[in-house]
Amino acid sequence: MKAVIAEKPSVAREIAALLGATEKNEGFLKGNGYIVTWAIGHLISLGMPSEYGITGFQKDNLPILPDPFLLTVRKVKKEKGYLDDPGAVRQLKIIEIIFEQCDSIIVATDAGREGELIFRYIYNYLNCKKPFERLWISSLTEKAIDQGFANLKPGTDFDGLFFAAQARSRADWLVGINSTQALSLQAGNGIYSLGRVQTPTLSLICKRYIDNKNFKIETYWQLELKYLKDGFNFSSISKEKWDDKEKATEILKSIERLGSSIVNSVDKRNSNEQPPLLFDLTSLQKEANKKLDLTAEETLSIAQSLYEQKFITYPRTGSKYISNDIWPEIPDLVRALENRAGYKERINNVKWGRFNKRIVNDLKVTDHHALLITDKIPSALSSKENAIYDMIAIRLIESICYQCTKEITEVKLESLHFEFILKGARVIDPGWRSIQNLFKNEDNDEEVILNIPTLKEGDSLSINEANILEKKTRPPVLYTEAGLLSAMENAGRQIENEEERKSLNNIGIGTPATRAAIIEVLFDRNYIVREKKNLVPTKKGIQVYELVKEKKIADVAMTAQWELALQKIENNELNANLFQNEMESYAKEITKELLSTEFVPNTLQLKCPKCKIHNLIFNEHVVKCPDKNCEWIQFKKVCEVALSDKEMENLITKKRTSLLKGMKSRSGNKFDAYIILDENGKTSFEFDKKKKKNK
């Protein structure tokens, strides 16, 4: 009898159906020589300090350095603390019995670092010694599963993957537990969470926010000259910028009196834009945030759903390429889209037999190839699922098309000894850009798709109109989720030290699979909030940043080096024990640093709205009255929207928040509302009346 363990029941059912294991039982399916069960995510995790007999936060206990690390069943929070999750205990017992009965195990958890860890932690916790093989697939189609079972890999081939996952798990524990307890002890009021990846991510957001707020905006003026020639309207901009409006105005009047410009040079060149590569998870999340205003977490959830419905390949990939053995399948995937609404015209633009193979690179395919659609084409998806599916499908079509060729023209003109610049671009061959009819480079603000007349050196152009343009210098833009994902992905490039920057150039912080969760942690900790599409730190977030910004825990370079070390462990190039020793040394160092840090408490003092006697306590997830007889409490997250300290102040002092946008009902529908506080300290919603009137 062979046991098969998947990560989720839905995946287990798909596999069981193909294996002929159709007999349903509680927690498993059986038949045809197989027992197929599932893990329900992380059933087993590293034990918390209480597992080692350590309770509460006490300086004398720090740093906590487990030896050995203990594994424990997943916990759930109850009134009396954290208790074993009954569902996890029940499923684990089923898995234990199955492992005892079987001859060998086939591991069918997600083919990645975390999927490997889920199985190995269960295997080690149960002290199982049965041999196991690995099912390594990139999609859940019948074809992929059949091929995977025909080519099972030895479990030991993935020891490096497990050691890297375990090292990551232990490093997060050592840094997170010790630094959080140390800083919280110094604060003396609430929990101040720190983490190996979350803190440098918070640092990125806070630094950008402070740079933005401290930026001194300066006004300057440029001149614009408009022309009409051979039926074409076009304009030029002065190269010079003036900080004195009066001077710019005087020059403008002189140019108007002159009435003409002379062409000094005409530079024409062809520009070839290669098609975009396929999506990895991070680039999909960035695109969905820009185009659909979806959070990274929402995009991952939607992609995971599409994967489990067999419409796309494994979403948690870090590669934008496919391998040579996948390439022959691409034409059939494209043809399969012909019957999907809106795709026939797009596919007609594809040059069959002349596909661009730029996306094929065996050396750049990591655990999984780039995101692809499968040959199963969806017909009934939600609007968001449709939008994400179309992004992946259209990107596939674009990626196999040839380059877009443009003629770029730059004309330098002179008027009254001042140089003016005219730039234009003309599409010669649209190539991949014909798929969506988007001909402008969205990342280049200066590029204008503009047909201009034939001009040559020495031509004199009559000025039809002259204007003075007021412009302002731009501060560093606040991070959106798309911008933050880019910063996390390319963290190594932000390092100031040149040697470090070169060695860590392609190393990010976090992984494609974990970055969305890291951002959500910052929301949950009330360290950041959304203001429209921007990510903005709260007072608490800034407070934590100011305390740790000069320390290694906030250093992007240090975190990138750790990510590089984890990659080396995965590739069997670095001993995991050496990495753990380094992390233990660092845990000692950061604990000592934080325990000697002077903490300035939050000065916000608000009276309890119910008892009207005690000052409220601001904790990580709630604001509450310290009086047990009063027990007034307000959660900081309401309908998935985090309330900033400012909003809490509004609620207590003004009896209402500002309009909170994007809250979600239990059914998943979004709504906007105010939170209102009555005289008895009870809260309720007040909906936006203007919005109702407009409807």
Q: Which secondary structure elements does this structure contain, and how are they paired or packed?
A:
Elements: E1 2-6, H1 9-19, E2 23-25, E3 28-31, E4 34-38, E5 44-46, E6 71-73, E7 75-78, E8 81-84, H2 86-101, E9 104-108, H3 113-125, E10 132-134, H4 142-150, E11 153-154, H5 159-187, H6 198-214, E12 219-229, E13 232-238, H7 245-258, E14 260-273, H8 281-292, H9 296-308, H10 330-336, H11 344-348, H12 383-399, E15 404-415, E16 418-429, E17 460-462, E18 465-472, H13 481-489, H14 498-503, H15 515-524, E19 528-531, E20 534-537, H16 539-548, H17 556-570, H18 576-595, E21 617-618, E22 622-624, E23 633-635, E24 637-638, E25 641-642, H19 645-654, E26 660-664, E27 670-677, E28 683-687, H20 689-694
Parallel strand pairs: 1-4, 1-9, 9-10
Antiparallel strand pairs: 2-3, 3-4, 5-6, 7-8, 10-11, 12-13, 12-18, 13-16, 14-15, 14-17, 15-16, 19-20, 21-22, 22-23, 24-25, 26-27, 27-28
Commentary on this structure:
It is a single chain. By secondary structure, the protein is α+β, with helices and mostly antiparallel strands. The chain folds into 5 domains: 150 residues, Rossmann fold (3-Layer(aba) Sandwich), CATH 3.40.50.140; 166 residues, Topoisomerase I, domain 2 (Orthogonal Bundle); 121 residues, Topoisomerase I, domain 3 (Distorted Sandwich), CATH 2.70.20; 119 residues, Topoisomerase I, domain 4; 78 residues, no CATH class. Helix content is 36%, strand content 21%. The protein has 20 helices and 28 strands. A hairpin with a 5-residue loop joins β27 and β28. The longest helix has 29 residues. The mean pLDDT is 91.
